[in-house]
Amino acid sequence: MKPKVLLDKVSLWSATAVVSVALMLSIAPTNVKAELKVPTEITELGKDTYKKYCSPCHGEEGGGNGPLARSMLPKPRDFTRGAYKFRTTPSGSLPTDEDIYRTISFGVPNSTMIPWDILTEEQRLSVIPVLKSFSEAFEFRKPDPPVEVGLRVRPTEKCIAQGKKIYEEKLECWKCHGIEGRGDGPSAAEQEDDFGFPIKPFDFTTGKFKGGNSPQDVYLRFTTGLNGTPMPSFAKELTDEERWCLTYYVMSLIKPEDDNHK
Amino acid sequence: MKKLGIGLCLSAMLFTSVVWAAEPPPKKETPPDLYEGTPDWYRAVYKDNVGLSEGSGPFKDYFKPQMLDMYWQPNRHYEPMKNLDHSIFIEKERRDLCVTCHEEATPGVVRDWRSSGHKNPKSTAYLSGKTAEIEKRTGRILDEVHCFDCHADTKKKQIRMPTGEVCGECHRPQFDDFLREREVGRPNHIQSWEANTIVPWYAEAARRGYLYGQHGCDLCHSGAEKCDVCHTRHKFSAAEGRQPEACITCHMGPDHPDAESYGESKHGVIYHKEEEHFDFTRPLSEVRPGKDYRTPTCQFCHMYEKHGRFIHNPVMKGIWRMGTVPPKNLEYTSSLKDYPYGIKIIADKIDIYSEENIAKRSYWLEVCAKCHSDRFADTYLKSLDEFMFQAHKLADQAQKVVEDLIADGYLYPSAADRDPYPLSDGIEKMLSPAFLGEPIYNAFKTLKGKFPVVGPILGVYGMFLQQQDNPSNIENMYNRLWFWYKLQGYKGTAHAQQDVSWWWGQAPMMMEFTKIQSEAVRLRREGRIEKVSLTK
Fold it and tell me: Which regions of chain A does DSSP assign to beta strands (E)?
């Protein structure tokens, strides 16, 4: 091989590597900054911020019953049970502070929970102790350590096909989420959350994943489950690889241009 | 010579460039103001925001508004929501968050907006042209008109309920056209809130605990400030505003059965049979009768101004003014001769043949002539005039019967023995001789409302309020005759609906007149019997 060709090859590969790393970083899970300074005690700022911006929906006592909650669907989260949907911790565990901060900052798509990045980082952090104060669970327990994210596999055709098989046969996800992933399966109408409200299975075609849009976010939902909802964790039923494949399969159901979303 | 030529050319160029530069900059428009030209006292009671703390109009201190009035009359009564402070979104102009939240909180609103011209103001050639005009006038680039543009009060950092003034910032020609409703006076849309609250019975009813009974009044009479009365939220479609259905939620019922009379007329029936062939996307001025519309719509006739021009309000050509105001062109036997209760909240007596009204008639004929011969249309309008003269004459005779009964002392119970005229104390305090006419004002001052008020316009109170023995049966019979049946006959005749003209109009007018005569005879007889028995 001529040196020039070799050089070209090297530069091509290094460029590919750089791009891949950049790509990986850019689509990397919605990591929150490592060193978050969450106040350990409730502060005046936290109280004020909660009262002004959170309590209209979540209620002054965190019961999910603020004055605006009445006409809302889905209903705002009731914090008194300590059941948080979007976590990095195992099923049934309390969330980490970072988990709570993440939901506040990124919001919950398909709901009235907007991304509260309009508030300063300090304000957002200040409400975390306030939210935790609404549930006794935080006094007696600590969140379990975040689940381990297994080695990521590539979204090959084979993997996606495997995901489809899990979706349609092994776990029968379609019973709630529908064959096309529109959240309209035969059991969809019967689903209720732990608070007694009807809950609509997620419509994958919208592409607006509530816990974040990166593959890792979706993978985490299958691994941790959504506390307080009928959506369980499949950490035991599925291997890491299977959960990645299921992730890629449900992400292949996204139809952003679908008229239903407009 | 050559040099001279160049010099001339140069100086010509210089001159033109000077002229070019000297062209005055475009005139700065004053901000749209729905109350332009009204006196200070008027603005103070109709425009200045007081939230829900006091009412509107001269009798504002006698009642508090209905809660919903903050939406119907936002300039005066709107109060921003207290549950969630939106100021942070306005301060930081986070337009994206309006949609993110409201897409879930009120999805219908967001979808409406997405399909509107506001979301995509350049989506069609026609819209692009219109948008370019607005961009030129306002000096703004308009690729999207967003929630924020209409709902954010950036000065107060509050959410606002947009009034026509907000719409008028971009839609100025339409706004200015609408403002011209004031020129022709009431009845019109722009003063409909005034009509609602300036009448003394509104505040009196509130005072007596019937405020929310007037819900129906407020819903229609809220057309004064808001464009969504015709172009519903949040599509604000011009095409929708051109359809007859845009009018009928208010224009129906006993006092102006427009929906019924137009709807069941040949015009309306053809419209309903063939509505899918009507092209409402065309501006009225471009509608080709017989092709785009096979029959006229409310808008096509009433918004035609003159000489092929349309105007963005439907009241400019009105001659009979809803049919309530007596024409000058009749000999009256009753007090209608002096029209004493026609206080100045509504037009003076109408001269049907004034120069202005004769001109208006020719504008009507211009519309009719799109499909009818001039002679047919003229004959039709003359027949309408004759119908109205007869109807007003009938009303005059009936009013005379009631007034004679009162003059002879047979009204029972007499005005002295019953509740006074609604809000008489307020009328005396808040209204002036100039407003009511000297004699009527003095009557309120000296008799404190203990006198009978019969006929247009103030006499209609009996249809809006119940007080102890006031009005009596015969007075309300007369109200039905002139305010319902006469007006129904008017609409039936004007809109060419035979059944409404006769069975809702002329026939009940005559039956009511007979009832009034009969009631008068009975009251006189009883009065006489009472006198004889008392003297024995």
Answer: none
